[in-house]
Amino acid sequence: MTLPQILSVVTLVAMMAMFVWGRFRYDVVAILALLAALALGIVSPAEAFKGFSDDLVIIVGSALVLSGAVQRSGVIESAQALVSRRVKRVSTQLVVLTASVGFASALVKNVGALAMLMPAAFQMAKKNKTPPSVFLMPMSFAALLGGLMTLVGTSPNIIVSRVREDMIGKPFGMFDYTPVGLCLLLMGLVFLRFGYRLLPRDRRATPTMGEALDVQRYVTEATLAEGSPAIDETIAEFVARHDHEITVTSILRAGMRSIPLADTVLRERDTLILGGEPDVLERAISRDKLALTGQDRDKKKKKDEKKGSEIGVIEAVINTESPLIGQSAGRLRLQERYGVNLIAVSRRGERLVKSLGNTVLRAGDVVVLQGALDELPEKLRDLGALPLAERPLRLGSKRKGLLAVVILGVAMAATAGGLVPVAVAFFAAAGLVIATGALPVREAYEHVEWPILIMLGALIPVSESLRTTGASDLIATWLSGTASGLPPWGAVAMILTVAMAVTPFLNNAATVLVMAPIAAVFARDLGYHPDAFLMATAVGAGCDFLTPIGHQCNTLVWGPGGYKFQDYARLGAPLSLLVIAFGTPLILFFWPVT
Fold first, then answer.
1. Which uninterrupted H or E stretch holds 292?
2. What pLDDT sits at residue 578?
3. Cα–Cα distance for residue pair 324/304, rounded to 1 Å
4. For all residues of the chain together, what is the average pLDDT?
5. How far apart are CA 486 and CA 492, in angstroms?
6. Rounded distance, CA 130 to CA 140, Å?
7. 501 Cβ neighbours under 8 A, 6+ residues apart
8. Who's near 327: CB < 8 A, 6+ residues apart?
């Protein structure tokens, strides 16, 4: 080996060791690796930062924005909720959740699909008095398997597609991954249906700040708008349709307040005083086309929107010296004097029945205020209210329904039909969901996982050094020599196993950046077509079931599930063996090596 080849391999080995060590976050490790490559001369200054302008970074970033827009639309969540109402057993609910997140991961990035459906898992666990850990890790593994089905499901598929384009001039298409990915997903769903019992049942997450404060039930005021499905329903039917998770404490009709009886029929323009958890209230208001009364009074909001200020909501607790104490929102004229709307109130130990405008506030009440986000901190100080720990709260925000899904569908169709490159289609789609309001600008930036993009931009030139120095050819030659006596299935299984073994420590995207060029040269040296080996690399890199650190999905459920590090291997090791056993013949069947 030449000195540059040795330095290239040493840099990557040291980088892997730092990933395993865990002292620094993966994006910091990637930056250190790039700096080391620059210092050693294996990456030139002219090439050092080209990774940040690579199409891959644009595709992954845009896919994350699109995932956030689809998540905010509530479409997938609503579809899943319709099914979940009809299933009561834990094992059946597990099948519904894992199948939902698995197939959703084919449409949006798997971590986005998982984030969309995690609230449903918590809701089911709460109803069953079951720890969420029963659902969360199986859902994470199903998301990983579902992401294998399409080009946009997971980052490794995108990277492998680009490597194939560099090799033979044609990338993998949007649905080229589907035959293998679909079969592996179905196999995984069957295993998870029974294998979830391998998980300890005593795992529980540390209570969050919101849980410690016990801010669960709010009261809000909403009016039945024209076309609402709640019109002509009785109170009993309305509550039953929302799974008895929402209560109607009072009805305002023609300026008169009345007690809601079970057989009271709802009419258009009725104003309901609703009680429930924030997520439940938000879903009910969105699905039933209810208009928050506070928003109807919001004249300043329209002016702020014209000026470009973003409207949002914040939770706050009224302190003991607040001017709100002993006052009602109507008497204080919050909108006219302070530029904020009171859209919900929570009071521990008491059921509120009055309209929000007439509810007399007390110290300790938790309120949801709506206004211009850049002004809300100052308004809270004026009102003597303290913001609570940040948590996602969409009560008072508007959804754009199917718009985000339609935009994503058009982008996928454009790339599948070869009309535009993937990077252009997804960048345009991300821009459209922001421009149309399907995803506010602030939320779009929050959904972008900047550490992943930094890692990709830094690692692309480092991994490319394997090729430019010729080290990848040497490694592939060594692997081909090792596999020279193996049949084709043995060679494919070897690449699949190596990729699967490396990804828990190197991150799945980084694994593909390193392994895909090696696999391609490996196939060439053995005289085989590279497709099967590239597909094996994508499958292996996308299937990290052994640790909570190799993929964002596993990391996402680690804390909420209360899992320990070793819990992942208890369920993940047998699933990994099944992927190797089933994945190898599937890859060879759909992508012959000759």
1. strand 290-292
2. 97
3. 24
4. 82
5. 10
6. 18
7. none
8. 360, 361
Residues 6 or more apart whose CB falls under 8 angstroms from that of 552 comprise 111, 449, 452
Closest by CA to 399, choosing from 361, 433, 448, 445, is 433
Q: How far apart are CA 382 and CA 376, in angstroms?
A: 10
Q: What is the pLDDT of residue 527?
A: 85
Amino acid making up residue 169: G
Where do the domains of the chain lie, and which CATH numbers do they carry? 75-206+470-590 (no CATH), 210-301 (3.30.70.1450), 311-387 (3.30.70.1450)
pLDDT digits (tens, 9 = 90+) for 100-157: 999 988 877 787 678 777 767 877 887 778 888 899 999 999 999 999 998 878 878 8
In the chain, the N- to C-terminal Cα span, in Å, equals 31
Give the contacts of 200 (CB within 8 A, at least 6 positions apart). Answer: 133, 567, 570
**Per-residue confidence at 80, pLDDT binned at 50, 70, 90?**
low
**What pLDDT, in 10s, does the model give residues 467-494?**
788 887 777 677 777 777 788 899 899 9
Report which of 434, 315, 324 is spatially closest to residue 376, judged by C-alpha positions.
315
Structure confidence by residue, pLDDT tens digits, 543-558: 989 877 667 788 778 7
Distance in angstroms (rounded) separating the CA atoms of residues 223 and 273? 9
Run of H or E residues at 345: strand 341-346
Model confidence pTM above 0.85: no
Residue 27: which region, alpha, beta or left (left: phi > 0; alpha: psi -120 to 50)? alpha
Q: What's the pLDDT tens digit per position in 18-36?
A: 876 778 877 888 899 999 9
Q: Structure tokens of 454?
A: 């930094």
Q: DSSP class of residue 388?
A: P
Classified as helix, coil or strand, 113 is helix
Q: What is the 3-state secondary structure (H, E, C) of 234-284?
A: EHHHHHHHCCCCEEEEEEEECCEEECCCCCCECCCCCEEEEEECHHHHHHH
Q: What pLDDT shows up at residue 289?
A: 80
CA nearest 532: which of 542, 519, 521, 544? 519
Please name the helix (run of DSSP H) or strand (run of DSSP E) that holds residue 218, with its range, or none.
Answer: strand 218-224
The answer to whether residue 264 scores a pLDDT higher than 80 is yes
Helix (H) or strand (E) holding 291: strand 290-292
What would the two tokens of residue 101 be? Answer: 């997140």
Label each residue of 463-508 as H, E or C: HHHHHHCCHHHHHHHHHHHHCCCCCHHHHHHHHHHHHHHHHHHHCH
Task: Using alpha carbons, select from 128, 124, 113, 134 the residue that is nearest to residue 192.
Answer: 134
